[in-house]
Amino acid sequence: MTADFLVEMKQITKRFPGVLANDRVDLQVKRGEILALLGENGSGKSTLMSILSGLYRPDAGEIYVEGRKVTFKSPREAIDAGIGMVHQHFKQVDTFSVAENIILGSKEAKFLLKAGKVEKEIEELSRGYGLQVDPTAKIWQLSIAERQRVEIVKMLYRGSKLLILDEPTAVLTPQEARELFQVIRQMTARGQSIILITHKLNEVMEVADRVTVLRSGVAVATRERQQVNQRELARLMMGQDIIVPSKKNPGQFGQEVLKLESATADSDSRRPGLKDISLTVRQGEILGIAGIAGNGRRELAEVIAGLRPLSKGKILIGGKDVTNLSPLEIIEEGVSYIPEDRLGSGLVPNLGAVDNLILKEYRRPGLGRGPFINRRKAGEFAARLIQDVGVKVTGLEVPVKKLSGGNLQRLLLARELASSPKVIVAVYPVRGLDIAASEAVHKMLLEQRSKGAAIVLISEDLEELLKLSDHIGVLYKGRLMGILPVEEAEPEKIGLMMLGAQPGEVMAS
Amino acid sequence: MIRLERRSAPSPAGMVLIPLTAIFLALLTGAVFLYINGLGSPKGISWGQVLAVYTGMLDGAFGSGYGLSETIVKAIPLMLCGLGVSIAFRMQLWNIGAEGQFYMGAFAAAWVALSFPDLPACVMLPAMVLTGMLCGGLWGLIPAVPRAYLGVNETITTLMLNYVAILWVNYLVFGPWKDPQGMNFPLSKPFTPAAVLPTLGNSRVHLGLAFALVLAVALWIALRQSRWGYEVTVIGESPRAARYAGMNITKNILLVMFFSGAIAGLAGMAEVSAIAQRMQQGLSPGYGYTAIIVAWLAKLNPFAILLVSFLLGALQVGGYSVQSSGVPAAIVFMIQGALLFFVLGGEFFNRYKIVCTGKTKMEV
Amino acid sequence: MKRIISFVFMLVFVVALVGCGGEKPKAQEDKKEPAAKEKLKVAFIYVGPVGDGGWSYAHDQGRKYLEQQMPDVETSYIESVPEGADSERVLTELVEKGNKIIFATSFGYMDSVIKVAQKYPDVKFLHCSGYKTAENVGTYFGRMYQARYLTGIIAGKTTKSNTIGYVAAFPIPEVIRGINAFTLGVRSVNPNAKVKVVWTNTWYDPAAEKEAAKSLLEAGADVITQHQDTPGPQQAAEEKGKFSIGYNSDMSKMAPKAVMTSAVWNWGPYYVETVKAIKEGTWKSSQYWGPMSDKIVDLAPYGPMVPEDVKKLVEAKKQEILEGKFDVFTGPIKDQTGKERVAAGQKMTDAEMLSFDWFVEGVDGTIPK
C-alpha cells in the first residue's frame, strides 16, 4: 500500500437489480488534493461515493484508508475513519440552531449539550477555513448556500479528512459557486482532501487537481488537470472510442414523417424547456440528439410522444397536425416511445409480461370482445412477441421487475415495435445494459430503420449516436444548436456544441 | 446495526408461517392478560379457564347455527364495504370514506322506504338498492372531483365527509324524520315490511350476503378480464405508464370512486333495510373503517375479502359471547386488538425483512 | 400464485379455528350444568362498561345487590353492548345460555328486546326507559325528575352568577324532563337563575362531557349538573373551583370539593322485587315508573359545603314528595316563550311527561326539531 494516497478504492463493483452501477472501479485520492469525479448522470458517480461514505456496501472490491483496509457498515463508521459526504439534499432540522445541527448525531451528543463550548469551537473552525457560519442561527433562517456551509462545517467538526461534495454547485448561483471553490481551495491548503462529484466540465477545469472520469459504471480515465482540456474530457465522458458505423447501410430516406415547427414547451422546473425547435425526420432515418442532461433532451422526447404540451409551434406526423393531441391519439398516429425510465413510464414493474405487453394493444378488437380482454389471446400475443425478441422470462405472469435490465428493455422494445410504428422516440435505450444487450437493442432499432420508420434517438453516449444516427442534432439550453450529417459530426465538434457553440464557430476553429 | 429492507417478493413459506405465528402470539398475549385479570378475582383462575375463554369465543362465533348466522350478519357490511374500498385501493386511491358512503347509502334507501311506504316489495327493494348505491356513489364522487382535476389528496377529504354524512343522519333522526309515535326518541318510523330485505329462514342473514357474493365474483371478473379492470390495475401500479399508454386517468378516478362509494352505499342500504329496519343513529359501529383493514389483509382479492370479513365478524361475535362467562369487555377488546395488531404487524414482515448490516449478505 | 397461497392460508386459518372450536366447548358445558339446574339465571346487558361510574355502574350495583339478597339467583352481565344490531344477538345468546330473566338497561335495546321476546315467550324481559311492552316484556324506570327537582333547589340556592350549567346527552323526553324538573327546582328558590343546556349527543364520552362542562363554566356557570354517564363534568367543576351536582351514582369521590349531592339511581330493591315476583309467578307485564317513595331514586349524602338551612329546605320538600303531597309538574308552568302550558293547580299526566318536547321557562337552550 502506498501511503501517498489518503484513500484508495480497488476494483469496486456494485450491482442493482437490472443495472451494473459500478464495474471494477479503481480510484485514488491524495492528501490535500481536489479530485473531480466526472461523469454523466447515471454513470455511477453517486453509487461509488455512497459506497465510500458507508451508505452502500460494494458487491466486490476493497477500500483502503491511509493504507489500512476498511469495511464501512454505516456512514457513521466512514465518518469515524475521516470520510464525510455532503449530499445534495441536506438532512437538517429546521428549527434547531446551526450548532445543534452540527452536534446532532455526533459522538459528543450525549444528553447534555454544552452549547457555549460547541459554539465557540464551531466558530473557530469555520473562521479557520473561511466558512462564515453563525453557530447560533437557526437553520430556517439560512440560505441554501449557508446551509451547505453548515453541512461542510459539520463534517470538518467531526474530523473529516476527506470531504465528498455531491454536485455542490447544482443548488448555487454562479457567485456562490465561485465562493465555494475558494473555500475548498483554502481547505486543501490545510491538508483536507476533497472529492468533487460533477458533470460540469468547466468546474473540473476551474478547481480540480486531478480528474477521474466514469462512464457507464467504468472508470475510463484519470488525468492531471494540466494535461487535459474540456474537449478531451467531453470525449472521455461521452465515449471516446468512436467506431466507424460499419454495420449500418447507407440511408435510403423516404418521405418526411415527423416534423417539428418552432416547437416550444415549458419544463417541469426552472430548467430550460424547449425553445423554437424545428426539425424533420424522414422514413428510414435516424436522427440522433446529443446534449448534456438538463438541456431539453427529455422534454423533446416527451413532446413528440404527446406527454408534454407545446406552448408554441407545431408537430406534424405524415403531414397531419398532431400538436397537443392526447397520448392515445399520438399512439394511434403510429408513434412509439422508449422512455428513459424503463420501469417508471415504460413498464409496470409489478405486473407480468402479458399485462405489460398488451399495454398498447388491449383496446384492439384482436384481444377480446366487448368490454372484456380475452386472456388466452392476450397470452398468445405476448408469447409471440417474447419469442420474436428472445426475452428470457421465467413466466408470463411473473412481475417484470424481476427481469434483468437487458430483458426489460427487450420486452419494452418488443411492445413498442410490434405495431410497426411510423415514428420511434428512443431515450437512452442502452443505458445500464451490457454489451450483448446493447447490440441487440441497436440491431432492433436498425431493423426498424430499414423498415422505414423515422427514429429519434436521444442518448448521452456519443459513441452510440455516431454509430446509429444518420444526422445528429445538439441541444443546448433548450435550443437546437444545429443538425449535422453524421459524416461531418466529429466528436470534438459535437462536444463543443453541447457546451453552447454554434456549428459555424466550431468549423472555423 | 439492524435495518429494514423491502422484500422483492414475499417468501411463500413466510406467507403461511408469519400469519400463523402472529395469531399464536396474539392469543398468547391475550392469555397472559386473561390470566392476570383472573388472578384478581376471588375464585382465582387456571390456565384451563383461560383456554376456555378462547374456545368460548370460537363457540360463540361458529359453534352453533345461530352463532354462525350472526357471524355472517356481522360480516355482510364488512364484505360490501371491503369490496368497495378495494377497488379504490387497487388504483391507489385511499378512500377512507366508506363509513360516510355507507351512511349516505342507508340514508337514501331509508328516504325511499319512508317517503313511499305503499310501494310493493318488488318495486321498493330495487328502488332502495338503486338510490342507496347512487347516493353512496355520489358521496364517493365528491372527493374524487378535486382529486381528479386538482390533485387534492383524497385521504383527508374522504375522511372528513364521513363526519358530514354521520351528522346528517343524526340531524334527520333527531329532527325531520323523528317518529311521531316515538315519544320524541331519535328514531325514524319503522319501515314497512315491503322495505325489509328478505332473510334466510329464521336467521338474520339477509339478501345482502348474496349481493356481496355476486359482487365479489363480478369484481374478480372485471378486474381480471375486462379492459376497465386492466386500466385500473395499470393506473394503480404506474400512473406514468398508464398515461403514456393513453389511459384516461381522470375519468377512471371518477369512475372508481363512484363504484367504490356505491358498493359501500349498498352495504348501508342492506344494513338499514334488513337489520335496523328504520333509520337510527349509530347504524354502523365503524364498518367503513374496519373494511380498510379487511381490504388490506385480503390484499384486495375479492374472495379473500369475503373470508377476512367473515373472520373479523367472528372475532366480534365471539367477543361478546365470552363476556357472559365473566370476562370483562375491556379484556375482550384487548384480545381483539392484539389479534389485529399481530396479524397486521406480521403482514409487515411479509413485505419487509430485517437485515443485520453486520453481515455482507445481499438479497437479489 | 400469490393469491392462491394467501387463499390457502385463509382456509387453513378457518379450519384451525373451527377445528379447535369443535372440541373444547363440551368440557366447558359439562362443568356448568350441575350448577345451572339449581339456580335461577338472570342476565343484564349494559350500554357502557360497568366501571363508568355512572349509568351502567348504578345498574351493576343493583345486580350485585340482587345476588346478595337472593343467593339462589345466578347473575351475569355483558357490558359495552352498542345499541342497535348487536344487542339483538347478545340478547339471543343470553337466552340460549339459559337465562330466564333479562334486564336490558338502555333505551336503544327496545326493538331488539321486543323481537327476541317474541321468539322466547317463556323468558321475561325487563327493558329500562323504553315504552314498548309485550306479554313477557315489561318496562321499568324511576321518577328521577323528583330527585332532579330537589337538586335544583340546592343549585338555585348556591349559584351566585345565576347561571347553572347542564350537560345533557340527547334531546329525548327523559333528559328534557330532568332539565325541566331541575329548572323548576332552581326557580322555586331563585326566580332569576337560568339553566344553560349543552347537548353532547353521547351518553358515554368522558372527554366530550368534560369539554362541554368547561364551555358552560367559561360561559359563566358556577354550578354544573349533568345527564351523562361519566363524572367528567363534575371533574371540570372541581378543577375550576366551582360546584356541581352528580347523577346516576354518588359522584362525590370523583370530585369531593365540587359535588354537593347527586341524584342517584338505586336499582337493587326493584331488581329484588321483580325477580321475586317472577319466581313466585305473580309478575305481570307493566310499565313500572317508580316514585322516590319506592327508593328507586334518591339523593346521595350532602357534601360539607351545603349549608344547614338549604339541607333543611330540601329535606322538607323531599318529605312532601315522599308523602305524595307535592308533584313536581304542577301548574302554573310556562314554557320558554312565556306561554302557560300547564294551568295553575293542574298536574301533568304521565303520558305528557313521557313525551316532553318543550322546555320550561328559565331554561337557556333549544331542542333540535
From TrEMBL, chain A:
The keyword Cell membrane applies. Residues 7-241, 258-502 form the ABC transporter domain. One of its GO terms (cellular component) is plasma membrane. SUPFAM superfamilies: P-loop containing nucleoside triphosphate hydrolases. Keywords: ATP-binding, Cell membrane, Membrane, Nucleotide-binding, Repeat, Translocase, Transport. It holds the Pfam family ABC_tran. Gene3D superfamilies: P-loop containing nucleotide triphosphate hydrolases. The keyword Nucleotide-binding applies. It is a peripheral membrane protein. It is found in: Cell membrane. It comes from the Bacteria. One of its GO terms (molecular function) is ATP binding. Transmembrane segments: none annotated. InterPro entries: AAA+_ATPase (IPR003593), ABC_carbohydrate_import_ATPase (IPR050107), ABC_transporter-like_ATP-bd (IPR003439), ABC_transporter-like_CS (IPR017871), P-loop_NTPase (IPR027417). This is Nucleoside ABC transporter ATP-binding protein. It comes from Desulforamulus putei DSM 12395.
Automatic annotation (TrEMBL), chain B:
GO terms for molecular function: transmembrane transporter activity. This is Nucleoside ABC transporter membrane protein. It is found in: Cell membrane. Signal peptide: none annotated. Pfam families: BPD_transp_2. The keyword Coiled coil does not apply. Keywords: Cell membrane, Membrane, Transmembrane, Transmembrane helix. CDD domains: TM_PBP1_transp_TpRbsC_like. The keyword Transmembrane helix applies. Its main location: membrane. GO terms for cellular component: plasma membrane. InterPro entries: ABC_transp_permease (IPR001851). The chain crosses the membrane at residues 12-36, 72-89, 123-144, 156-174, 205-223, 253-275, 287-315, 327-345. It is a multi-pass membrane protein.
Automatic annotation (TrEMBL), chain C:
The keyword Signal applies. It comes from the Bacteria. InterPro entries: ABC-Purine-Binding, PnrA-like. One of its GO terms (cellular component) is plasma membrane. Keywords: Signal. Residues 40-321 form the ABC transporter substrate-binding protein PnrA-like domain. This is Nucleoside-binding protein. It comes from Desulforamulus putei DSM 12395.
